[in-house]
Structure prediction request, 753 residues.
Amino acid sequence: MAHPIAAKTIQRDADPLAESAQFVRGVGPARFELLQRLGISTVRDLLFYVPRDYEDMSDFRRIADLEPEKMQSVVGEVVEIRGQTTRRGLAIVSVVVHDGSGVLEARWYNQPFMAHKFRYGQRLVLSGKPKRARNGWWQLSHPRIQPLDGEEHLTPGQSSILPIYSLTEGLRQEQLRRIIRQAVEQYADLVPEILPESLRQQRQLVHITQTLRWLHLPATLEQARQARRRLAYEEFLLLHLALAHRRRDVNAQVRAPKIVLTRMIDARIRQLFPFTLTRDQDRAIAEIARDMGQDKPMRRLLQADVGAGKTAVAVYALLLCVANKYQAALMAPTEVLARQHWQTLNHYLAHSRVRRVLLTGSLPESQRRFALGEIRMGQVDLVVGTQALIQNDVEFHRLGLVIIDEQHRFGVLQRAQFRNLGGEGQVQPHYLVMTATPIPRTVALTLFGDLDVSVIRQMPPGRQPVKTKLVAESKRQDLEKYLRNEIDKGRQLYVVCPLVEGAAEEDLAGDLYESFGDAANKSSAEDSNSPAEKASAAPASRLSKNPSVAVSYKGAEEHYEYLRQGPFRGLQVGLLHGRMDERRKASVMERFRRGETQVLVCTTVIEVGVDVPQATLMVIEHAERFGLSQLHQLRGRVARGPVAGECYLFADVSNEISRARLRLFLRTTDGFELAEADARLRGIGQFFGTRQHGVSELRFANLIRDVDLLEHARQDALTLARTDPGLRQEAHQLLRRAVLERYGTRLDLAEIG
Ligand code: ADP
Ligand code: MG
Prediction:
């Protein structure tokens, strides 16, 4: 079915903004080439080229009116450029400017290259704190400088703001400023206002023409801020209109089974849990049950910090579905996790008749075929598995619910694939995604914008915060002794290393985090191991063939040997890493869970989801190599029971940023705070699996700073999608066109389901 808003073709012939930037006065072929290097080819590109900063010439005066020792700005023309070196070897560059009212000398010490930055006759803005020199001239030492174009007329007394753009070689700041100013003068009036009047009033947003003037020629910083906010709002609105319409598409066409919750069912499920559900868990369950009671497919994200108890919520939803005689599936990102869920379920369902099967990649072919047959014929109610669940040959009899655990790193494209699990038809299962990464709300809304969100913030009662300490290398032996003592008392210990094998410093110099996003995305598709481990596996294995290189990073393998033969001699020590095959991993995990091994040396394979309550001790080696959210996930492993967990870090803190990050980690256990800090320090790229999502389109909006704008834009988009489905009203035509131009094909608005 064609999408309602995709039906008309987009006409753009008469669009003056689509004209080549060469049409702007002052842009010849040579300049045009430079502009193209900046990604600017049309007039529109010029108008929407974002200043990277503004120079605020606060207190702009005539030279004659300057006062000493106060921050002020002047505009003057260069009349003298001199470089000299004093007898003591000090290089002084002196540039003299005048403005008709007086002269002023700017000086730079020990920066001889400054002499080449200026030309005679050039006009400059100079900002700094002036001093009277002995000759009566005003003098500025190391002032801030902005070159001006011949046409830029600034009037002293009125403060002035200059936009500063990113440049390319051969293009000067004042030249680009002039070109953009020209474009604004020639074209800003012609830019159509796509936001409906009513929205602009309600959200107090400036008209687009005004916006462009304020973006490029603001009189105050406040104007520049308003302009940016309006454009950021617009970006969010377009994105969320696209997402809202995609969701509407889904809802309009597709039906889902109505799952009914009765008192009886509720009571029967609750009695399976050995604990009382927390208020947050109850709320999430109520929201899920309400969704599943509709004949439209649920699309919900359950977000909860590590250890907050998502599994119980998932189990509730699965059993609710099964009680309604529909099949339910639970999918985990790794085999270790799938098995853990399987055990949890078996435990809860020990005395129940729910028929269930575990479907993972390591299942022998014959057993797999048998399981598939049972699933197809409806002889199985509950399926737990890995990505093996979404292979083409898996066919369900009556699938009512799909739950995907720890999905935060899956991109939007994979999600589309999961949705098709229910078959090609018009009946689709309900769909619940769970994530333990406390994604900042803005990012969650952008990444999962077409999902409803339930949040669990409250921890189960009796949880104690993990004691976290940074340990000096010189105290290693003391720590080992202490740990051994605790283990003898019956506690269990994780020792986490960033790599499987050791590696030399230089081989790891490239930042591990860089490849984090991609590797993560791949790993989810391949049912493999922790992304960080994957990313780092390559240099390590390359290195292992070269024994002459000194090993300076601890690999899990050597460290395991060291601990087993050294400080933990006589204890049962296990080794777990991503390069072991799935069955082996599962059995190592199992022995640890049962307490047969007391120490588990591992890589980040245990990062997500692993739940062994009696393991309350953790050591993290090379903690500086992990992202904050990742450390938080790791630490979450020892915050599971009533005994306070302890987490010890060894880290190289010579680097300023590592130090800042670890300091924050020691201070707080709030996953949301850590995730936001991580997003700030490492960029938000880590959250996104696919570039196609439209996040790369966000030029004005900042996902960390603009939460309020995003909330408003999302609300407005949902209202619009409800009151004017397909954006058919006259007042929404331009908006509709803008959504399609930007997201029509990218989000596959016409077809995706
Ligand atoms: P996560 O949200 O990280 O997946 P889990 O579902 O693994 O967390 O739960 C963490 C631990 O908390 C488990 O050992 C689980 O049994 C326990 N738990 C969950 N809900 C409650 C509750 N309401 N009261 C007490 N313990 C709970
Ligand atoms: Mg979990």
